[in-house]
What does this fold into?
Amino acid sequence: MIVNNSLDEIKKRENALSFISKIIEDNGRNFLYDLTGLSGGFIASNEDLNLLETYIGPAVIEQELQSVGLEHLGGQKVLPVNRTSSGILATILALVEKDSYVVHFLSKLPAHPSIPRSCNLINANYLEFDNFDEFYIPENTSLVIITGSTMDHQVIDETIFKKVIQHAHSRDIPVFVDDASGARVRTVIYNQPKAIDLGADLVITSTDKLMPGPRGGLMSGDEDLINKIKVKANQFGLEAQSPTCLAMVNGLKNFTEDNLKNGFLRKEELFNLLKDDFILFEESSTSVMISPENLKKQLKVNSSSKDLAYALSMILLKDSGIITIPAVSMPSASATIRFDLSANDAFNLDLKDLHKNIVSAISKLSKIANDEDRLKEIIFN
Amino acid sequence: MIVNNSLDEIKKRENALSFISKIIEDNGRNFLYDLTGLSGGFIASNEDLNLLETYIGPAVIEQELQSVGLEHLGGQKVLPVNRTSSGILATILALVEKDSYVVHFLSKLPAHPSIPRSCNLINANYLEFDNFDEFYIPENTSLVIITGSTMDHQVIDETIFKKVIQHAHSRDIPVFVDDASGARVRTVIYNQPKAIDLGADLVITSTDKLMPGPRGGLMSGDEDLINKIKVKANQFGLEAQSPTCLAMVNGLKNFTEDNLKNGFLRKEELFNLLKDDFILFEESSTSVMISPENLKKQLKVNSSSKDLAYALSMILLKDSGIITIPAVSMPSASATIRFDLSANDAFNLDLKDLHKNIVSAISKLSKIANDEDRLKEIIFN
It folds into this structure.
């Protein structure tokens, strides 16, 4: 196995970032196609920028963020955090007791690692379910978490969503929804209500996922709970800073449902092109994707499935300037190769060209898929 | 006691921020004087802003930050973090074992709360000293921390600085320097070397303190240690995001020693004006300040010293638009009223006017200092 731990993952990410940097320097930004669906944005006027001073910026910006944030998420009060992961940490620090249980339901395992990791940090017990028939809430549970849409954009069934909330509330346990991409995928593509309108006490979304905002997390919900979480966030430096808050305001104001809806249609088109070549590609709301396990099956080799995904992601970057998550991700993110057709850059790509580039990258990978040295070279150099 | 816990502190901060917001709306930014010394800045050209996309921005910006950051701090590799507090948390998560000791030396207690709090989170033992004669490093110590300059800008003696490092290194224990403002105060005003040049393994500075950068923390030091800390930072969402990194690059490029040196001279001038009225004012490198305890002595009342400081800070804000830390600070920050003469806004103030405003605010406070209802109204409304 080549990428074996978090340090290797950081090394892989740094290699990809320096390659991206080189492409921008040598050829320009137009030679890159960020199809992660995470490319967000940073929209700010010069007037906006003048506000960005430590104690003056927040005063003006946080007030505006309250109003646009509540409109997007519902709830009584919003709390902007540095990342969705740091918001999850702050929530668990604020609401979960040592030795108590955190119960997590999501449509498909694995869970985002930040949830079990934060539980582990404070010595709480963590239980996770992706089958509602097996779902239960033990005695001494502090918090129930629901993931609205997984890292690979698998969306939870609305009926189950409501049932999990009912179970928790019948026991007076607060419900926190990790709606990273779900706050938009669920509502726009699947016509589901906002998490808060389904009865959740707290929700968090990633402001760079499927909307033109900055990397960061935006929470909302019950005011008393938000205030408790805010204390922990401020104590440990987990809150979002003013520049991020400013870009959240403008990202939310500029969010339209059209990109998601068009992405959904173009996704269908690309999926139809690809499925003749590779039967193991799957589709989600606005993406076509292949999991590391399916990639390994497709290539019929013995190498680690994740290493194959990292290598494919790097080949796509180096040969075609296509950015997918595995090359550039933070430790423990999903290694699924996902092409998000709702990303801004996706609209600049001819789908037939994209199809050709994907076929050619997989063909290149297949030739070296059993050669650990060659894979290593592609991932780290 | 009026401000009694972290929730009260958040409420007080929110009240101050909404007051600041109102002043900007009604009168404009020029009616505010941010003398916190934390007002930083956010310098960015339009070209810079185009870079700020999730996976493309970091590639270019982080490379530039490496070079300007290493120049400012020394060391082998820099790591930008969301706040100095989150960098301290990441460091303790990465380097400190449960049940082991963290030993902290600073020129004057109290320590910044983020250090004991992070130790407490992982069940490490925390020892702190501000007298070198009492200083010792117990068995099973994971990390020695030195604060270069305290929250109130008290600077450590260079000889003691070196001795603490020697002690730690003779036992093979890494030394981490919290040089939040110290990286500049110590070097520019006190002519001390950089922490890394004094032998420290790691250093962190706050990029909004005494330089025109964004709220955030910048770490540097030994590459292997930084890599370990980076893993924890990325796992829990503690790292700085691209907009902050961009503003760090530009803040460092625009940092000059002149503001600090001029601030030092003007501080002398203000101190000479104030000391005739109030003998309990003190001076630090670029600031004139009064501690909550001395404020209480000055006013000869029984109210909580911190409440008096919060009220004075609010009076200064409401009557004169002067922003000091106690009104707007995060939970557990120092409640010392400090006027930083190296702040940008300080150069727009006539020192005689500033002197008059301070005298009048203290006189106003003295009239209500025993009336808890009035103090409460000033702090929270």
Q: What stands out?
A: DSSP finds 15 helices and twelve strands in chain B.
